[in-house]
Amino acid sequence: MRNKFEEQLEKLHVEMIQMGALCEDAISAAAEALIHSDAALAAAAEEAEREIDQKEREVENLCLKLLLQQQPVARDLREISAALKMISDLERIGDQAADIAEMTSYVHLPQGRSSHIADMARAVINMVTDSVDSFVKRDLQLARQVCAADDRVDDLFIQVRRELVELIAADASYGEQGLDLLMVAKYLERIGDHATNVAEWVEYSITGVHPSNN
């Protein structure tokens, strides 16, 4: 019975890695689509989001099967319940990447102003990767590093917002575009928040205590 459980738990880890990779693909494609005004990349981000939705259903079914059929002990129960929470955040990450992709047809970065948006995208991709890796490897330190990395994303958001305010102040005609770009930055900031949520559930699965309760 335990061997069967271990096999299914390993399958859960594989599915979580695949879902995390799809999130990375969606964010990367959406950011590149925005920077380069590339409709094909925007479509790729939206396709990745649909695959993320499907993966969420598959992982949820696997978790429920583990709970109902295998009667896991305390630590295993925490790991499975944490995975159920995590996939909700990963699904939201896919949604927000798709939201960015949808904006690429009418939002254009001003010349020389793409660096901080691109930096935010790279930062949140790393956070998503590390949050899922920390779950699979049961790496508490890595999970906590993800939470700390969110401060960097918040700082980048503030920089983007400041630059856009300055840009609009200098040229009022850029107001609508500036607000749209601020929304893109906000989506990226929210992705960082969701990756942090994932990492916090990893900490719960390992320690039995959610960081919000400390």
TrEMBL record:
Keyword Chloroplast recorded: no
One cellular-component annotation, GO: cytoplasm
UniProt keywords, alphabetically: Coiled coil, Cytoplasm, Phosphate transport, Transport
Pfam families reported in the protein's UniProt record: PhoU
SUPFAM superfamilies attached to this UniProt entry: PhoU-like
InterPro entries: PhoU, PhoU-like_sf, PhoU_dom
Keyword Kinase in record: no
Chief localization: cytoplasm
Coiled-coil region: 38-65
GO biological process: intracellular phosphate ion homeostasis; negative regulation of phosphate metabolic process; phosphate ion transport
Cellular compartment(s): Cytoplasm
Domain PhoU intervals: 17-103, 117-202
Annotated family: Belongs to the PhoU family.
Function: Plays a role in the regulation of phosphate uptake.
Assembly description: Homodimer.
Protein name (Swiss-Prot/TrEMBL): Phosphate-specific transport system accessory protein PhoU
